[in-house]
Specification:
Layout (H helix, E strand, L loop, with lengths): L8 E10 L5 H10 L3 E10 L3 E10 L2 H12 L4 E8 H6 L15 H7 L4 H10 L4 H4 L5 E6 L12 H19 L2 E6 L5 H11 L5 E4 L6 H12 L4 E3 H21 L7 E5 L3 H13 L3 E6 L2 E2 L9 H9 L9 H4 L5 E4 L8 H5 L6 E4 L9 H4 L5 E4 L14 H10 L7 H13 L19 H16 L6
Helix pairs in contact: 1-2, 7-16, 8-9, 10-11, 10-17, 16-18, 17-18
The protein binds 1,4-dihydronicotinamide adenine dinucleotide, pyruvic acid (PYR) and magnesium ion.
Keywords: Metal-binding, Oxidoreductase
Family: Belongs to the malic enzymes family.
Cofactor: Mn(2+); Mg(2+)
Length: about 475
């Protein structure tokens, strides 16, 4: 299996160069020898003896940055004036904005969009609230809501700190599915308060995408909102992830020629994503799933405070396997990690059955790095964009909401989720499937349209579509 180099960090160095003492070629060679790759160059100022240039340099990681800057500092005639990180630069001022759809240039136009004429629209909606779907942004607006309690694999961080992820999701909603999504990070701890706040916000939105809310609270929040609101509520980390995982597994099993029903599947991290993936795989026909969390395998003989784990023990692990991840992974066909980084060892993979399939999906660091796992697995996937086979909920949420909003579905039900998973899997023609291509890429334009079509069809078939 081919693995791309992990080279996702770009630094921008502003260099003051004394042209009498050193040429740009010598600097570039020195950067190259230190493991950096100059990918862009801007001339900021040019004088007779000196020039100031911004160099964008690709490096492998923080250590790579250090090596490159040290190499430049050792050169005579070069002064590093400033170092910046491209990832920080693209976040300056945030990643999204709100723009008007039409421009207002005179008082007459103003009177139509704003007072006094707008009052007629308000009155119409007051008389028939369903008109809000057509006469406001509502039907193409999704709230991306987090309380910052389980952000990526970073755990509980401040709501402000969760914003970059939610802005990123909002950006992808717009770019991939033309949906206006708003990042809303709530400074609330209590489940009931979160539910009430989201209910109060809901009139402005056509759908609610819950994001990075820790388990087990996320289950109650989603369940209550689904019952108490008449717009789709979707916890992305649960269902978006489960849908994409099922799509990836369906395609991976075609390559290894195994049937879901005979596979032993280990799911590591029995939180929001792990529980939803389990439910989806059980529905798809997997019989032997073993869930592993911090204290080892979940079984029906243990007493758990977390009632989802009690359900889990009763509905999985038919052979009552007990012990650590290393113990229960013996002879497993599939490993799915949605826990934390670097907890799976090569020695564990070696114990798996022939042609192991490993989805190490924790973000930002997978349960095992693809470089380490590579020689021992048949199919490897991560949640990251810098390796092949990106199994990430970004493949699902734009398309599933596009479909749900277009047909004005009241909920996103199980049939719609299964249809989405099959649509993602079927996006890759069978003769193109290979170990590095079991899941379509995020920028494959067919993904959103295929999901949307399948989801609208399933919504109509199950009677939840209004359009
Ligand atoms: N690739 C993708 O699309 C997605 C990836 N994820 C990743 O999956 C991970 C979990 O996300 P959520 O389910 O939302 O969080 P969560 O907080 O609901 O669940 C995480 C679970 O992992 C368990 N865990 C922690 N350390 C563990 C260990 N050493 N061994 C086994 N289990 C351990 C926790 O006890 C918890 O039950 C995160 O890293 C997240 O970034 C989540 C959603 C989508
Ligand atoms: C991808 C995502 O939603 C997560 O890692 O939480
Ligand atoms: Mg998430």
């Amino acid at each position: 299996m081919m693995i791309m180099a992990q080279s996702n960090m770009h630094i921008i160095l502003r260099l003051e160069i004394n042209k009498q003492q050193i040429s740009f070629g010598e600097i570039a060679t020195s950067i190259g020898n230190a493991g950096g790759d100059v990918v862009a160059l801007d001339v900021i100022n040019e004088e007779q003896d000196t020039t100031i240039r911004d160099l964008t340099i690709k490096v492998n990681n923080k250590d790579g940055q250090e090596t490159v800057t040290q190499a430049i500092q050792s050169l005579v005639g070069v002064n590093i004036k400033h170092i910046s990180d491209r990832t920080f630069l693209v976040h300056l001022g945030g990643k999204i904005e709100v723009r008007p759809k039409l421009s207002i240039d005179n008082r007459e136009e103003l009177s139509h969009v704003y007072t006094p004429e707008v009052a007629r629209i308000c009155t119409a909606i007051n008389e028939d609230p369903s008109l809000a779907h057509n006469l406001t942004i509502k039907n193409n607006a999704v709230a991306v809501i987090s309380d910052g309690s389980a952000v990526l694999g970073l755990g509980k961080i401040k709501p402000e700190a969760a914003m970059p992820v939610m802005e990123g999701k909002a950006m992808l909603f717009k770019q991939l599915a033309d949906i206006n999504a708003y990042p809303l990070c709530l400074d609330v701890e209590n489940t009931e308060d979160i539910i009430q706040i989201i209910k109060s916000l809901s009139p402005a939105f056509g759908g609610i995408n819950l994001e990075d809310i820790a388990s087990p609270g996320c289950f109650e929040i989603e369940e209550r909102l689904k019952n108490e609101l008449n717009i789709p509520v979707f916890h992305d980390d649960q269902h978006g992830t489960a849908i994409v995982v099922l799509a990836g597994i369906l395609n991976a099993l075609k390559l290894v020629n195994k049937d879901l029903s005979i596979c032993k599947v280990i799911i590591c991290g029995i939180g929001a994503a792990g529980i939803s993936i389990t439910k989806m795989l059980l529905k798809a026909g997997v019989k032997n799933i073993i869930g592993v969390d911090k204290n080892g395998a979940i079984t029906r003989v243990e007493n758990y405070e977390n009632k989802m784990w009690t359900w889990y023990g009763e509905n999985t692990n038919p052979n009552m396997e007990q012990g650590s991840l290393s113990a229960v992974i013996q002879d497993a066909d599939i490993f799915i990690g949605v826990s934390v980084g670097n907890i799976l060892q090569v020695e564990d993979i070696k114990k798996m059955a022939k042609n192991p399939v490993v989805f190490a999906l924790a973000n930002p660091d997978p349960e095992i790095s693809p470089e380490k796992a590579k020689p021992y697995v048949r199919v490897m996937a991560t949640g990251r964009s810098d390796f092949p086979n990106q199994v990430n909920n970004v493949l699902c949420f734009p398309g599933i909401f596009r479909g749900a909003l277009d047909c004005k579905a009241s909920i996103i039900n199980e049939e719609m989720k299964l249809a989405a998973a099959k649509a993602i899997a079927a996006t890759i023609p069978e003769d193109e499937l290979n170990e590095d291509y079991i899941i379509p890429g995020v920028f494959n334009k067919s993904v959103v349209s295929n999901i949307k079509k399948a989801v609208v069809e399933a919504a109509h078939d199950t009677g939840v579509a209004k359009n």
